């Protein structure tokens, strides 16, 4: 395995940053040399720059485009993300709209600027400006709903012929809340109430959409007039691409992979239980049983253990379809056209809701080139330090992608100053985000355009330069975290809130002890990671030596087997929850009890466990919970990024992995200075680490001459 890792890292290094200034190197995981990185520190490729949401509101013209772009460039902005807006001369997805985008690309190219395109006229992604409702209604989104409720008392009978769209029926005792599944496979309801008062729920599949906000909607509001497409149907996703991406290619395809970097998706989600034609047959082929009798119980409050497990099977199947038939098809199209697909979904900061509405975050991001999150409202602030940005960066690391996105500052409260914005940026940079889409710049054609808020402050160009260079530094090299923290999505499908609480607590605890980690998921444990002697290696070439499992209800048998083999070959598995839990193989419904994991460390995550069981590449001489860091490996150097999140200065000594010359790289100016007072011993360098309130530092330890 050691030989394999050397070959992998050598392959990553070959031909990487020596041609960094030419695309598509920024789209790849790299293993650069110190000299490569240093030579581009002052002037790095534009594609590494942050982007800015530019709303196309009002009567857009070449003159308004020129005015806005010149204003943006004067403020250090090098990339923009366009979003169709209201009151445009030409409706979204009309010939006039595409000609406007063509003009934007022409003017960006003149200024050596770059473009991202939001793939929808507002949000969420997938309604193609209303074209599915208007032109392809058969491909609209579908869902499961309670179509009818029938009240019965003891010995009363419900007897009726059902519409073929009724897929399931369940009777619920109004007093005990117990339920009884009713067989309606022959489209006949014939059920007599037992003792007590009962209510029968008939569950139907029908066209149903999450609400949309459309640029072509004259009300400007959120409603269901413009239906989303059926995310689980590959034909619907291909039609979405035909309505959108394929049309863009006709007008600006010659700049794909050059001026045009890619498409950005926005908040696709299900706020109800999904359905797609043939889902019951797909389920039966995957799981080996009929899900329809169980579907009615999804809408009850007191499901049995078997019913909850069947629901997890259903979530497992539809999240596979969501991954393969929506996200992967778009990512593949972008890759075939020299573009990147970046997307954030919804509820990344609320994991129980994320599991309910998105299925499985890591399945969703499996093939996405730039996984993302959304920092909106007050999700990240001085009084709300949050670790959810690590979802996006972890997905990028797991699946071999160099960038992770945060759409930041939409509807923020309180409105940030440029210093506040810098803190929010750093809070996410240190958790692995390395591409920001700053919100929001409205077109001057709408009458209220131009820089506003923190973007209008004199300090914004400096923030832009700092964050651009920081992203360049943090997008190159191999992520170096050695700890994987299992994200128990499957347990959340079962409604286990303790799994969520445990995960968040461990995340906080690790970071406050300067233990960096990635969230890891079930599909990575089962099939993505390459197993070595006491190691798991992800698709970025990053190696994990410790896997921590928080409180869980359930784990798949293949994942459990790989964890056991990992531990028996020298890796560390730390399980912080209680035994027994249940283990599933092909189906969750038929899960078995697991009451013996003597090959793992079964303990709460105490300070002693952290010190003795978890390898550290950064050690501070005293406790400093506010100090966070990232570590990335170059071919002949180690790069460390430190951030003091707190409002108190920190005077520390830090022991970091690696020996050689030690330098401070200033991300604001691109200058380099030597660090003195260092001591090298046993493969580590101990150095002075002085961090003012909210200060960051990039420290490079290198062996080059």
UniProtKB/TrEMBL annotation:
Source superkingdom: Bacteria
CDD domains found in the cross-reference section: A4_beta-galactosidase_middle_domain
Name of protein: Beta-galactosidase
Alphabetical list of Pfam families matching this protein: Glyco_hydro_106 (PF17132)
Signal peptide range: 1-21
Keyword Ribosomal protein: no
Key words, A-Z: Signal
């Amino acid at each position: 395995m050691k030989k394999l890792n050397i070959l992998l890292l050598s392959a990553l290094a070959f031909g990487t940053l020596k041609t960094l200034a030419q695309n598509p190197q920024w789209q790849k995981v790299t293993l650069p040399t110190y000299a490569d990185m240093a030579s581009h520190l002052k002037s790095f490729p534009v594609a590494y720059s942050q982007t800015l949401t530019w709303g196309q509101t009002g009567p857009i013209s070449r003159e308004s485009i020129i005015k806005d772009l010149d204003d943006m460039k004067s403020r250090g902005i090098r990339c923009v993300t366009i979003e169709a807006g209201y009151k445009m001369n030409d409706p979204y997805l009309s010939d006039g709209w595409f000609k406007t985008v063509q003009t934007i690309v022409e003017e960006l190219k003149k200024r050596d600027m770059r473009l991202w395109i939001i793939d929808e006229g507002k949000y969420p992604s997938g309604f193609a400006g209303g074209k599915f409702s208007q032109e392809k209604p058969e491909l609209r989104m579908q869902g499961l709903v309670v179509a009818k409720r029938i009240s019965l008392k003891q010995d009363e009978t419900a007897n009726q012929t059902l519409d073929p769209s009724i897929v399931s029926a369940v009777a619920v005792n109004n007093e005990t809340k117990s339920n009884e599944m009713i067989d309606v496979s022959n489209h006949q309801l014939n059920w007599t109430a037992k003792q007590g008062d009962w209510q029968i729920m008939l569950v139907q599949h029908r066209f149903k959409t999450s609400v949309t906000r459309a640029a072509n909607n004259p009300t400007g509001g959120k409603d269901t007039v413009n239906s989303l497409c059926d995310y689980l149907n590959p034909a619907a996703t291909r039609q979405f691409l035909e309505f959108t991406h394929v049309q863009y290619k006709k007008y600006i395809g010659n700049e794909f992979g050059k001026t045009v970097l890619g498409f950005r998706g926005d908040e696709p989600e299900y706020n109800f239980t999904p359905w797609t034609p043939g889902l019951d047959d797909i389920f039966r082929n995957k799981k080996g049983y009929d899900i329809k009798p169980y579907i009615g119980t999804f809408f009850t409050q007191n499901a049995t253990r078997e019913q909850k497990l069947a629901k997890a099977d259903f979530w497992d199947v539809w999240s596979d379809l969501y991954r393969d038939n929506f996200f992967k098809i778009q990512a593949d199209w972008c890759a075939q056209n020299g573009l990147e697909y970046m997307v954030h979904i919804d509820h990344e900061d609320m994991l129980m809701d994320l599991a309910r509405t998105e299925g499985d975050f890591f399945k969703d991001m499996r093939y996405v080139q730039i996984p993302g999150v959304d920092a909106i409202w007050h999700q990240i602030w001085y009084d709300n330090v949050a670790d959810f940005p690590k979802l996006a960066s972890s997905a990028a690391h797991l699946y071999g992608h160099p960038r992770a996105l945060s759409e930041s500052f939409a509807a923020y409260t309180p409105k940030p100053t440029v210093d506040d914005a810098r803190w929010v940026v750093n809070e996410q940079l240190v958790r692995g985000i390395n591409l920001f889409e700053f919100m929001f710049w409205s077109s001057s054609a709408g009458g209220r355009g131009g820089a506003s808020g923190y973007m209008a402050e004199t300090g914004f160009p400096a923030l832009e330069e700092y964050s651009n260079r920081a992203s360049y530094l943090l997008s190159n090299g191999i992520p170096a975290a050695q700890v994987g923290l299992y994200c128990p999505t499957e347990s959340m499908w079962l409604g286990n809130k303790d799994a969520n609480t445990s995960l968040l607590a461990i995340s906080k605890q690790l970071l406050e002890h300067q233990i960096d980690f990635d969230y890891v998921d079930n599909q990575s444990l089962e099939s993505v990671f390459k197993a070595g002697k006491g190691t798991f290696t992800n698709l970025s070439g990053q190696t994990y030596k410790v896997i921590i499992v928080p409180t869980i209800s359930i784990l798949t048998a293949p994942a459990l087997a790989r964890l056991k083999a990992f531990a028996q070959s020298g890796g560390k598995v730390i399980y912080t929850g209680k035994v027994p839990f249940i283990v599933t193989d092909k189906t969750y419904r038929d899960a078995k009890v697991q009451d013996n994991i003597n090959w793992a460390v079964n303990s709460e995550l105490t300070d002693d466990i952290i010190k003795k069981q978890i390898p550290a590449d950064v050690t501070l001489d005293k406790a400093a919970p506010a100090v966070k860091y990232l570590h990335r490996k170059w071919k002949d150097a180690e790069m460390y990024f430190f951030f003091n999140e707190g409002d108190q200065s920190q005077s520390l000594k830090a022991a970091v992995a690696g020996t050689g010359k030690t330098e401070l790289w200033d991300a604001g100016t691109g200058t380099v200075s030597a660090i003195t007072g260092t001591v090298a011993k046993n493969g580590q360098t101990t150095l002075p680490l002085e961090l003012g309130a909210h200060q960051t530092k990039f420290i490079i330890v290198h062996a080059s001459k």
